[in-house]
Design a protein that fits this description.
homodimer, 208 residues, mainly alpha, Tetracycline Repressor, domain 2, 10 helices, 0% strand, elongated
């Protein structure tokens, strides 16, 4: 199983950040949310699954919502790790960026649509403007900036346009392939081909 | 006052399509929705504003929801007309496309944020997958395709990539500047600069 990305600094979290119990709660909650949905899961059920008391869980999270935010952060964190893993391979920056569009689409579709319960959870998170979602958006921007820098360093990409402007523009073009509201509106379209086409035009735009 | 774009073929509409009364209902409803919101407006109030009976209004629309959809179509139709007007000017295709990004952003922000009541109405429409919203999405795609064709005809844009692929990709990059959920998440950012940056990279990608 993948490691759970660092959840420190999320609100509603208490006690030692790296405690193994925190990770166990997140995993147990994720399994419950996945099977029964966020609404139908109680903290005492999560506690029972772990053979601990609810009070013990409350040492780490101040509410079910805080657990939910941590689960959401964990799910999005796994997408972020897949993006970083691709971004750091030895391929050309252009190839890596193209793959990032596809990965983002694949992982986002899996999260939002193959798993309806999880979709509802993330929707709740977007409504509450959870910091785990803000962080995911930030990571996507960082990956875009990193790859633009890499392409500039290798001479693949032009260097005249200010880096932040270009990186921000690239990150904006990720939106149709990662935002649940946009993915939901495009389920009938061939999103893989669309992501490919956007990657192509953006890469032409970046080229030296 | 601008003409109301053609509302034929929207569901829940009855009676003669071009009847002047249909337009008057849409305008009266829009004014009510703008001041009091969709939820607080009744068909009998709209009827009273027009000095007609509710029954008369029901000759043209089968429900308040159908009136609401027509109002939504009217508002989005005005954005579409602004886009087409720009797309058909005599500037270079590149200049026109750049302006389309800005216009789309300005009109969408005005609709969704300067007018909270209207925002709620459009949100309702997106939930119900109204055909007026589908049509708006289609018009944006058509404008993108038209401008790519124009740029290819004038020799500004490359012609090797299949037209539909390129046009679709360009339309996808409009999303951050027209989708309420994305605009809402980016209110702190300088969206005008971002739209400009996306236009720049896309135009580089389109260039011959």
């Amino acid at each position: 199983m993948d490691a759970i990305p660092d959840q420190t600094e999320l609100p509603g979290q208490r006690g030692p950040q790296q405690h193994e119990m925190r990770e166990r709660v997140i995993r147990a909650a994720e399994a419950r949310f996945r099977h029964y949905g966020y609404g139908k899961t109680t903290v005492s059920e999560i506690a029972a699954d772990l053979s601990v008391s609810s009070a013990y869980i409350y040492k780490f999270f101040d509410s079910k919502l805080a657990i939910c935010e941590a689960v959401c952060g964990s799910l999005l964190g796994r997408i972020d790790e897949a993006l970083w893993q691709e971004a750091r391979t030895q391929k050309t920056a252009a190839e890596r960026l193209r793959r990032v569009y596809r990965l983002l689409l694949e992982h986002s579709l899996a999260l939002f649509f193959h798993d309806r319960q999880m979709h509802d959870m993330v929707a709740t998170g977007m409504e509450h403007r959870w910091s785990s979602i803000e962080r995911h958006i930030e990571v996507m921007s960082e990956v875009a900036r990193f790859l633009v820098q890499e392409g500039r360093a290798s001479g693949e990409f032009e260097r005249k346009t200010p880096l932040e402007e270009v990186a921000g523009a690239v990150a904006s073009t990720f939106a149709p392939f990662c935002h649940p509201a946009l993915l939901e509106g495009s389920v009938d379209e061939d999103l893989t081909a669309r992501a490919e086409a956007v990657a192509t035009i953006v890469l032409r735009g970046l080229a030296a």
